[in-house]
Structures are given as C-alpha cells and as structure tokens.
Amino acid sequence: MDTSANSPWPTTVYIATQEKLYQLSHDLILVRSVTQRGILTGGASPFDEQFHRVSETDKRNATFSVNILLPFVENGTVISCGLTDNECGYCELLDPKNISNVLYREHILVEPPWSRSESVGFLVNVEKTVGQTETYILTAIQQGESTKTNCSPGSDAVNLHNTNDKQTEGIFSLSGESTISRLTSKPNVEFVDGFQINSIIYLFSNLPSKDKPNKVRLIWLEGKTGKSYTLRSLRGATLSISDGGEGSRLVASSVIPGGPPVLWSGVFSVDGAQANTELVLFDISPDLTGDTDKDPDFCSTCTDKPKLTPKTLKPKKVLLRQSNMTSVLAVRQKAWMVFFIGTGDGQLIKLVVDKNYHTVCPRVLYRANDDRQVFPKMHLDQVDRKHVYVPLLPNQMERVQTRGFMLYHNISTVA
Q1: Does the chain have fewer CB atoms within 10 Å around its N or its C terminus?
Q2: Over the chain, what is the mean pLDDT?
Q3: Does the structure show a pLDDT above 60 at 405?
Q4: 155: left (phi over 0), alpha (psi -120 to 50) or beta
C-alpha cells in the first residue's frame, strides 16, 4: 500500500494498492476509486504494448502496480509510476481532482523494477539560475544483481527524472545538460528515506554486507545549477548509535520541523533484530566543507582515485527503547517535539520531548485489534493537524486523533 497523505492538496488523500487507486477526503471518506486492472494491447515488443484499464467484470491480462505516487501541485498533476505485468515501467499523470482522468501516459521505468525493494522516490527542486527552479523526480533504487527488464537497460542507484515536457528531452527523461544524471552505489544498498530542506537533499540508506556489519549512511546533495551539479555535489556521513559505528540498522525516519539545526529522528534496530529497537535523535545539519564526490560507497564520476572516509555522526539522545518499533512521525508543538511511533503489533505511541531532550512518559493512542504492523511512513492530517494517518499492513488505513489517550480513530479498509 503506497500512500500520499501529506499532499499539497491538503483536503485529499491518495492511496495506491495492488488492485485500486483511491482518492479520499482528509477524513478518509471515499471520493473516487480507479481500478489498476487492465489489458496490454498491440506492439511487436513489450516496450510497444499499451496498458488500458478495464472494468471489474471484463477479462484482463495485466495489472498496473504502483510504486511511486507523488502529488505535484505546481504542475496540477498526480504522478503515478510502477510496473505492468510484462515487467515494463509505466507512468501516468492524473488529474488531482479526478484521478480517473489520465492527462498523460508513457511506458518508462522510473521506479525499481521489482514490486518489493528498499527504494524511495520524491520530488526535489533544483535552482538552475536565480529565480528559476526545476522540479525533478528523485529515485533512489536498491541495486540487486541486475535492474534490467524486458523494456529497460536498467537504472542506477540515484536518478533524477524530468517532470514536464518543457525540460530537456521531455517528461520523465534522465537526460539533462550533460550525460551525467545518476549516482552509482555499492550493490544491495537499501534506501530507507529521503527529503529536501531548502536546497539540500538528504538520503538515508543501509549498507548490508556478507562479511561486515551493516552501516547506516546519510548523503547530502545540493540542489543547484542542474542535474549534473546536484549529483556531483555528493558528500556523506555515517550514522552511528554504537562506539564501533556499525551493526545497527535504520528502520524508519522522520525529520523534525524547524531549525537550524536540522534535527532528525530514526528508528534503529540495534542488533539487526526487529525486537530490539531504539528511537534516536541526531543533528544532521549538512557539512559542505569537504571535497565532493569522494565517497567510498556512492559516486557520480566513478574513478579509482582515493576516497575519503565519511565523518561519523553520533546521536544527541536516545529518546526511547521499545521493542518492535517500525515507524516514526515527528512534529513540533511550540517548544515541544512530539513523536508518533508505530509498532509491529499495531500500536501508535505518542512521545513528548522538551527542548532539553527530556521525555514525558509515552502514551498509547491506538492499538489495532489484530496486531497489524504499522507501515514505515506515517503522515499528519494537514487540514486540522490533530490526526495522524496510520497505514497498517497489508491493506488498512487509520486516522488517529493525536491528543488524549486512546480516544478516537476512523477506519478505512482498502482492497
């Protein structure tokens, strides 16, 4: 279940499931649903085939599985990208007020070529000149043995795709002002989260290894000048919650509004087991003083030149030790930081922290009846800012009131 609850159209929630795409009001009342079932027609090769939706009762030979769902308010569209059954990438631009209205469609691979992978995608703004900003889709894709499909030569770890036809080479293209518009990485890098604050892009990942402990990496990119400069501006750090700097694993994350400094919270699996988890607070303010594109794990212009050891960031505070935490959402309420924490057995916990990082006793706001795991990403209702959208695996969404103690929730179950 992919969600885009934190939408620039704050009164609308978009949810993608295996069979349908939903448009709901902010209080989870169904406005419209669209089937993701269809047929592939025509074409001498899989790349030339076209996907067309069919009704629930008609025969179908394909399903459009959405991996990326991005409201793009400046362009007046909702970007929906995924895979069809022939392993071909497919993207649509939808009318945000009526998702059954497809404004544009194209067979192109923007997201990971697998239905399940540790990958992220979000919109970023790159300032090309003073007063001129371009918006791109940044995808950070887990690299397996191969990302090739029947319709694509493959993709690199970090990519910048166009979002409109006025950009160089047109919509969804990787091309820019030069041929360099990607970052490569070591194999099996698992991306967990990413976002942009002002001109700085933040990407978080796990670097598992067969013969070494897991590393948690943060990379910074400067969204300036164009695609090539943005990716060549790569700098990074290692996040460590232990003295050795390795072994822990990042499960979920949320930036804390406000700043500077840039405060960020992460749920870490301490020993690789989900049962032993900690909520940890870091200052991740970017260090832009070192050389660019010299990272040992990521590169834009990849050469054999010596690499720099990334700096190590240590936590400011371990806020909570709790078994089986799976997600976190951080908000500010005046001088307080408030954390909403999801768990593997369907709980939503509220933790209040003061400016000196002292915590108030955590409270359970909601508990699922059937121990459904909370999805790693939660969102705040942007209309009243008093409810949290809590996705529960595999197919349920809760809207939980943020005040009080197990007070109120709305349930929306999606197929």
Answers
A1: C
A2: 85
A3: no
A4: beta
